[in-house]
Each structure stands twice: as structure tokens, then as C-alpha cells.
Design brief:
alpha/beta, 5-stranded mixed beta sheet
Length: 330
């Protein structure tokens, strides 16, 4: 009997140890993502290629439409982390939300200006109608930045019309209801084939930093759970490298999440984003300044850009040689 009790106790201790070890090795996290744009691909690749599992994260990805809703869900703790445009995060932080941008795999705008074929230069959009999915948020801000870059006043020179998702906006162009819109791949390919003009080489925008799909966390997580954020950042860095070097597998991920079947559309999405993704996804002061300069929040002009970012996770991995080791791998 005594031996049986000792054996039972040993079994219980072993089970407890293994359970504790399992919990330590695999942390459950829920990550919301705010768009089906290919710019969000690093988070999908991290899931499908097993990088979350590799770094001990049991990650569930959940779609939520738009950055504003995503940031609200993050603040309310419906999600542990989100991948969303930096615009929504910065605006929410200006309003008092304690959230920060941790990593930015694509530090450029993910939209380009597309216009009807009779408009040969963006300046001809003066007085014209531009379709947007919303009158607030990152999408319309990107259009305003592009319009200003070509010499137009985005607040006075054009008329904005809310027209929903990209397919609906392309249909509005076809019908003549609007004269231009902003599109990201692969809808840029659809636009070119339809004879629309795609203005994807505006000189003033070539060096503009802009926080597109970004890893965003609560400040509390930065303080209390840096280990999980370290794992997330590692996963994203490896996913970016995978995206650039494993084309066939990456296209399958794009096909799954973006529901693309046309091989040309898949190629367009892959080609454009592989040129934009950065190996060192550091959130920068300059990208925050881009947003603050356009924000209408009363605190925007005096806000310190550094308060909106937590670059230490990417900086640490770079200093330790992790990023270099990933880039050397095949």
C-alpha cells in the first residue's frame, strides 16, 4: 500500500510537471487582423508555416474589419494583440488608449491611386469623385497623402464617396460613378487590365514612411509579458524571410487567406509585397510623425512620437544577431 501511494504521488508529480512544462512551452494568444490585404501576409505565414508553434505560441488568428474596430477590441481585451494599420493605433492612443506599435513589417503605404483611363495625370482629379471604403482611417488618409504629393488639396479639391470594398470600388470606376480610388494588390492588376491608370510611382512618396499592417499591443503587455512579445516578433521576422524566399509555399498562404484563385492575381500580390517587406520591422519615429502631421486630434501637434512605439523588441533581436541568423538561413 505504501509503495502504491508513493507511485501515485510520483505519477501526479510527473503529470503536474508535464502540464507545467507544456504551458511554459506553448502560450495561448488570440491575434486579430484587420484586413485581407497582402500586407497582412506575415501574420498568416507565421501561422501556416509553423513559426508560432516553433516559438511556443498557440496562436488563433481572427479577422475583424478595420483598424478602428480592431483597436477597440484590443483595448477591451477581446484580443491579446492585433495586426492593423498604424493610423488607428495612433489615433486611439491620442484619445487615451494605452497601446503601442511593436513591429512594422511593411513601412510604406499599401495602396496606390487608380483613375479612369481619361485621367492621364493625378492632377486632373481636381473636382472629381474618389471612392473610399470609409471617411476615417488609414485608407482615406493614404489617399489624402497621395493627393497632396501630386499637388492637390485633399480637403478641398476632390469629393469623397464611400463605396465599400475594393471590388465595389472597381465596379464604381467601371460605371463612371467615381473617377478614382485607392487599391492594393491584386486589385491593381484588375485595374490595369480594365484600362484604368495606376499611379504607383509618385516621386514624393518613394521615401515616405507609413506604418501599414503593424503588430500592436497594450502597454500592459509590454511591461508584464515581454516574453510573449519577443516570441511574436521572432515569428514575424521569420515569416517575412519565408515570404521572400519560399515563393510557392507563400502563394498557397495568400491563396488561402485572400481567397485568390487566379494565378496572375497571386503573382501580383506576391511580387508587390515581396519588394515592400522589410527584414528589420522596426517601428520608427518618422512613420509616426507621418500620421501625427495629418491627425486632427488636438493633442497630435504636441505629442511625442516615441510614446506610440515600442521598438525595443526588434532592436533586441537585431543586437543579439537573431535577425542576421534568419537572413543567412535558407
Amino acid at each position: 500500500m505504501r509503495q502504491l501511494k508513493v507511485l501515485s504521488a510520483a505519477v501526479l508529480l510527473t503529470v503536474a510537471f508535464l502540464a507545467g512544462r507544456s504551458n511554459a512551452q506553448s502560450s495561448k494568444v488570440i491575434i486579430g487582423y484587420a484586413n485581407f490585404s497582402p500586407t497582412y501576409a506575415p501574420i498568416w505565414v507565421a501561422k501556416e508555416a509553423g513559426f508560432f508553434d516553433k516559438h511556443g505560441l498557440n496562436a488563433d488568428l481572427i479577422f475583424i474589419r478595420g483598424g478602428a474596430m480592431a483597436t477597440q477590441a484590443l483595448v477591451s481585451r477581446s484580443f491579446d494583440f492585433i495586426i492593423a494599420g498604424g493610423v488607428a493605433a495612433i489615433e486611439a492612443a491620442l484619445a487615451g488608449a494605452e497601446i503601442v506599435i511593436v513591429a512594422v513589417p511593411a513601412n510604406r503605404m499599401d495602396q496606390v491611386l487608380v483613375a479612369r483611363n481619361e485621367i492621364s495625370h493625378p492632377t486632373q482629379l481636381k473636382g472629381k469623385k474618389i471612392a473610399v471604403n470609409s471617411l476615417v482611417g488609414s485608407a482615406i488618409l493614404a489617399i489624402k497623402i497621395m493627393l497632396q504629393a501630386v499637388g492637390l488639396n485633399p480637403e478641398k479639391d476632390v469629393i469623397y464617396v464611400t463605396s465599400g470594398d475594393p471590388a465595389t470600388r472597381v465596379a464604381a470606376l467601371h460605371s463612371g460613378l467615381v473617377d478614382a480610388t485607392g487599391l492594393s494588390p491584386p486589385f491593381t492588376l484588375t485595374a490595369r487590365r480594365a484600362g484604368f491608370n495606376v499611379f504607383d510611382a509618385i516621386p514624393a512618396l518613394e521615401s515616405l514612411e507609413y506604418p501599414s499592417a503593424s503588430l500592436i499591443a497594450r502597454q500592459e503587455s509590454v511591461r508584464k509579458d515581454p516574453v510573449t512579445l519577443d516570441k511574436l516578433t521572432r515569428s514575424i521576422i521569420e515569416a517575412v524571410h519565408f515570404f521572400k524566399t519560399r515563393k510557392t509555399e507563400t502563394k498557397k498562404v495568400l491563396q488561402k487567406y485572400m481567397r485568390l484563385q487566379n494565378p496572375d492575381e497571386l503573382e501580383e500580390a506576391y511580387a508587390v509585397l515581396s519588394a515592400r517587406l522589410i527584414d528589420r520591422p522596426l517601428p520608427t519615429i518618422q512613420s509616426v510623425k507621418t500620421i501625427l502631421e495629418w491627425s486632427k486630434h488636438p493633442k497630435a501637434k504636441t505629442a511625442d512620437p516615441a510614446q506610440f512605439i515600442a521598438p525595443q523588441f526588434v532592436e533586441k533581436l537585431d543586437k543579439e544577431g537573431f535577425i542576421g541568423s534568419v537572413l543567412r538561413s535558407r
